[in-house]
Design goal:
about 260 residues, lyase, Enoyl-CoA_hydra/iso, ClpP/crotonase-like_dom_sf, four-stranded mixed beta sheet, Enoyl-CoA hydratase, single chain, alpha/beta, six-stranded mixed beta sheet, EC 4.2.1.17, binds octanoyl-coenzyme A, about 15% strand
C-alpha cells in the first residue's frame, strides 16, 4: 500500500477499508486528504483483487466537513480558477465498484456530502448528519443541495440546509438517507461483513447494478428502463451468469470468476 498521510488503508480479502485519518481536526476534508482518497479509490477500482470499498472515519467523526481553516481566506478567483470545490471530488464519481460509507459520529457539511457520494450508507447509532454551511456564510458545495433532496425529499433537505440542524442516525434511516443503523461498536465489522458479501458476487454484475441504479437518478424513467434492459442483456455475455444459474440448478454455492 502507498504511504498515505491522511488515510489508513487495509485490505480484508476482496474488500478495501479506507479510514479517513485527521483525528485532531475531526477528519476535516482538505485538499491533501481528498487527493489521497481519490488516488486510493482510483487504484482500488483498477485492482482486480478488490471487489468493494468501505470508507469510514473515527468513532468521533466520519468527517466534520471541508477544512474551514483552509477555506477561510479563499477568494472567488482562488476557487474559480483552481476549481477547489470539485477538482479532487470528481474522482469519487468515477469509481465503478461499490463504495460503502460507514458513518460514526459527525458527518457534517462536506462530510455528509462525501458519505452521500457513496453507494450505500450505514451508520452507528450515535451518528449525526447535517449541512451546517449556512452558519458559515456559505452553502453546501459538493452536492448537498442536490443529493440530499433526492435522498430525503425536498422538505427535510430544506429543513437541514436552512436551519443547520443535525439529524440523528435514526432519523436518517427513517428518511431514507442511510440503509442500516447498527450499534456504534459494531459499525466497521458490519460494514466489512456487508462489503464481503457484495465482493463475493460477480464483480461485472455488481458494476452493472451500480451503473443501472445510478441511472435512476440521472435519467428519465423511460431512458433508465432502456438502459437497464440493455445491461440485463449484457449480463448473458458473462461467464458468471452461466455459473450463477448452473449453481442454482445444481443446488451448490456459485463460484464466480468475476468475468
Ligand atoms: N474544519 C476544520 N477544523 C475543524 C472542522 C472543520 N470542518 N471541524 C472541526 N474542526 C476542528 C476544530 O477546529 C477543533 O480544532 P482545535 O482542537 O485545534 O480547536 C477540533 O476539530 C475539534 O473540534 P471541536 O473542538 O469543535 O469539537 P466539538 O466536539 O466541540 O464539536 C463539531 C464538534 C460540532 C463537529 C464542531 O467541530 C463543528 O461544528 N465543526 C464544524 C462543522 C461544519 O461547519 N462543517 C461544515 C464545513 S463547510 C463545508 O463542509 C463545505 C463543503 C463544501 C464542499 C467543499 C469542497 C472543498
Amino acid at each position: 500500500m502507498p504511504d498515505y498521510q491522511n488515510l489508513l488503508v487495509e485490505q480484508h480479502d476482496r474488500v478495501l477499508l479506507v479510514r479517513l485519518n485527521r483525528p485532531k481536526q475531526l477528519n476535516a476534508l482538505n485538499d491533501a486528504l481528498m487527493d489521497e482518497l481519490g488516488a486510493a479509490l482510483t487504484a482500488a477500482d483498477a485492482d482486480e483483487s478488490i471487489g468493494c470499498i468501505v470508507i469510514t472515519g473515527s468513532e468521533r467523526a466520519f468527517a466534520a466537513g471541508a477544512d474551514i481553516s483552509a477555506m477561510a481566506s479563499w477568494t472567488y478567483m482562488d476557487v474559480y480558477r483552481t476549481d477547489y470545490i470539485t477538482r479532487n471530488w470528481e474522482a469519487l464519481r468515477r469509481i465503478r465498484k461499490p463504495v460503502i460509507a460507514a458513518v460514526a459520529g459527525y458527518a457534517l457539511g462536506g462530510g455528509c456530502e462525501l458519505a452521500m457520494m457513496c453507494d450505500i450508507l450505514i451508520a452507528g447509532q450515535g451518528a449525526k448528519f447535517g449541512q451546517p454551511e449556512v452558519k458559515l456564510g456559505i452553502l453546501p458545495g459538493a452536492g448537498g443541495t442536490q443529493r440530499l433532496p433526492r435522498a430525503v425529499g425536498k422538505a427535510k433537505a430544506m429543513d437541514l440546509c436552512l436551519t443547520a440542524r443535525n439529524m440523528s442516525a435514526e432519523e436518517a434511516e427513517r428518511a431514507g438517507l442511510i440503509s442500516r443503523v447498527v450499534p456504534d461498536d459494531q459499525l466497521v465489522s458490519e460494514a466489512l461483513a456487508m462489503a464481503t458479501q457484495i465482493s463475493g458476487m460477480s464483480l461485472p454484475i455488481i458494476m452493472m447494478i451500480k451503473e443501472s441504479v445510478n441511472r435512476a437518478y440521472e435519467a428519465p424513467l423511460s431512458e433508465g428502463l432502456l438502459f437497464e434492459r440493455r445491461v440485463f442483456h449484457a449480463a448473458f455475455a458473462t461467464e458468471d451468469q452461466k455459473e450463477g444459474m448452473a449453481a442454482f440448478l445444481e443446488k451448490r454455492p456459485a463460484q464466480f470468476k468475476h468475468q
